[in-house]
Specification:
alpha/beta, Rossmann fold, seven-stranded parallel sheet, binds nicotinamide-adenine-dinucleotide, binds magnesium ion
């Protein structure tokens, strides 16, 4: 964990040490608290400046990893936060909600399975009720399973990846949009994989490219309603996704070597991009993808 805040100047390559993870496995979706080392969500470091004062945000996959770091950052910037996660992730969610409440903001946990369209609609309704409205939506929940051969990639897994990463994004956004007043922001989550698909992540990488594309179309459609739509595309970041089937053992062991910095990112380093895109500072930014990936060059 770093305790220097995100404004600390210095060499970005050395901002965090290499993770050098021991090879480890958990069933999906994985508990962050059981990882070695535990990812850094900015608990000791994120310093808010009131950039989201009074905003009401729903963050999917907000129990852990990037979504967890976003929830903590948003709360420290003054937002009330509802997080969605799978029921088996309750303990990770409790950790994030404790951080949100410690920042003096409302923190609401909404366990659900977003592969079900009805659950997505209920999720939005519950968030709106609990927060008294909604003006920021972060679609961040994701599924990633590495499979070497196309012939071993079963139809159900391919479909489940798209349901989680793309269809749920569509269902949740569609249900949320009527609640979003002008000035609201939607931030979606793509990946470096959208541009550089790993050969063993066909469904995942294609789903991330779809999110980029969907967001850019929607940004144009929603501009007339005063709603901005943007994307964060993280690069290799140390999270539960990796230890629950997201990468092969070889890639996990070499996880730090997958980017220009030669170290994995921490969720705490991805969260500020979401803060920027959610805040009114980004008023002239819509339909954009902000790549946060340790110096990898993307189109
Ligand atoms: P993570 O495992 O900490 O978070 C993913 C979350 O998705 C889980 O915590 C879970 O709550 C949620 N989720 C998955 N399936 C769900 C379902 N059916 N219903 C409800 N919630 C569900 O891992 P992360 O890396 O922080 O992932 C967050 C996002 O970042 C994902 O969209 C992922 O694709 C993206 N991303 C991650 C990396 C990386 O290297 N970690 C790189 C690029 C993009
Ligand atoms: Mg989780």
């Amino acid at each position: 964990m770093s305790d220097a805040d995100q404004f600390e100047p210095g060499d970005p390559v050395k901002r965090y040490p290499r993770v050098e993870p021991p090879v480890q496995h958990q069933p999906e979706p994985g508990l962050q608290s059981r990882m070695t080392p535990v990812p850094d969500l900015g608990e000791e470091s994120y310093r808010g400046l009131g950039r989201l004062t009074g905003r009401r945000a729903l963050i999917t996959g907000g129990d852990s990893g990037i979504g967890g770091a976003v929830a903590i950052a948003f709360a420290r910037e003054g937002a009330d936060v509802a997080i969605a996660y799978l029921p088996e992730e309750e303990s990770d969610a409790a950790h994030v909600l404790e951080q949100v409440r410690a920042a003096g903001r409302t923190g609401v946990g909404l366990p659900c399975d977003i592969t079900d369209p009805g659950a997505c609609r209920r999720l939005v309704a519950d968030a709106v009720e609990a927060l008294g409205g909604l003006d920021v939506l972060v679609n961040n929940a994701g599924k990633q399973l590495a499979v070497d051969d196309l012939e071993d990639l079963d139809d159900e897994q391919f479909e489940a990846t798209f349901r989680t990463n793309v269809f749920a994004n569509f269902w949740i956004t569609k249900a949320a949009v009527r609640h979003l007043p002008p000035g609201s922001a939607i931030v979606n989550t793509a990946s470096l994989e959208a541009y550089q698909p790993a050969p063993d992540r066909l469904g995942y990488a294609a789903s991330k490219a779809a999110i980029n594309n969907l967001s850019k179309g929607l940004a144009q459609q929603l501009a007339g309603r005063g709603i901005r739509v943007n994307v964060v595309a993280p690069g290799p970041t140390w999270t539960a996704l990796q230890v629950s089937g997201g990468v092969s053992d070889e890639q996990m062991a070499a996880f730090d070597d997958e980017n220009t910095y030669k170290r994995a990112g921490q969720p705490a380093e991805i969260a500020p991009a979401y803060v920027f895109l959610a805040s009114a500072e980004a008023s002239f930014v819509s339909g954009e993808t902000l790549n946060v990936n340790g110096g990898m060059v993307t189109p």
